[in-house]
Design a protein that fits this description.
The chain is α+β, with helices and mostly antiparallel strands. The chain has one domain. 19% of the residues lie in helices and 40% in strands. The protein is built from three helices and seven strands. Strands 1-3-2-7-6-5-4 form a seven-stranded mixed barrel. Strand 6 and strand 7 form a beta hairpin. The longest helix has 12 residues. The chain is globular and about 50 Å long.
C-alpha cells in the first residue's frame, strides 16, 4: 500500500473538492481505505461554489514511496497550510509573481515574505495557469 498509517516518514495535507452529496461517501472511503478518522477530516464551505466543499485531511506516506495522489483522489491537491490559509506551491509562486508585479527575473521566491494575514480563510490554487483565491469557511456541522 502506498499510503500508510504505520512506519511513516512523511505526512502530507490533502485538499479535495467534493460535491455536497458525495461528502459522506468520501469520508467513508477515507476511513475504509486509509484509516483517516472522521474527527481528522475537516470540511470547508467555498463562498464561490455552493455545490462543492473543500475537505482537508492528512495521509502518511511510507518511506521511499512515490504516490500518485490523483489515482486515489482525482479532485485532490497537495496543500500546505499557514494559519487558516491553504495553498499549493504553484499558487504560492503565482502569488509572489503577482505581488512583485511580474518582475520574474529578479524574484527570490524562497526569501519573499508573504503577508499571510491577508490570506486567512482562503485557499490559493492555480487553475488554467492563473492564480485563483477562494474564500473558505470551516463547516462545523
Amino acid at each position: 500500500m502506498l499510503l500508510n498509517m504505520e512506519n511513516t516518514t512523511k505526512i502530507i495535507t490533502l485538499a479535495s473538492f467534493v460535491l455536497n452529496d458525495k461528502i459522506d461517501s468520501f469520508k467513508k472511503y477515507l476511513y475504509k481505505r486509509f484509516k483517516v478518522p472522521n474527527e481528522r477530516v475537516f470540511i470547508y464551505d467555498i463562498d464561490e461554489d455552493s455545490e462543492k466543499k473543500v475537505i482537508t485531511f492528512r495521509v502518511h506516506i511510507s518511506e521511499g514511496k512515490r504516490v500518485n495522489i490523483s489515482s486515489f483522489f482525482p479532485t485532490t491537491i497537495i496543500a500546505h497550510k499557514k494559519g487558516e490559509c491553504f495553498y499549493t506551491i504553484n499558487a504560492l509562486n503565482k502569488l509572489i509573481e503577482k505581488e512583485t508585479e511580474g518582475d520574474f527575473g529578479n524574484i527570490n521566491y524562497k526569501d519573499y515574505q508573504i503577508e499571510w494575514d491577508n490570506y486567512q480563510g482562503k485557499i490559493l490554487i492555480v487553475k488554467g495557469g492563473e492564480l485563483v483565491i477562494m474564500n473558505i469557511n470551516r463547516n462545523f456541522s
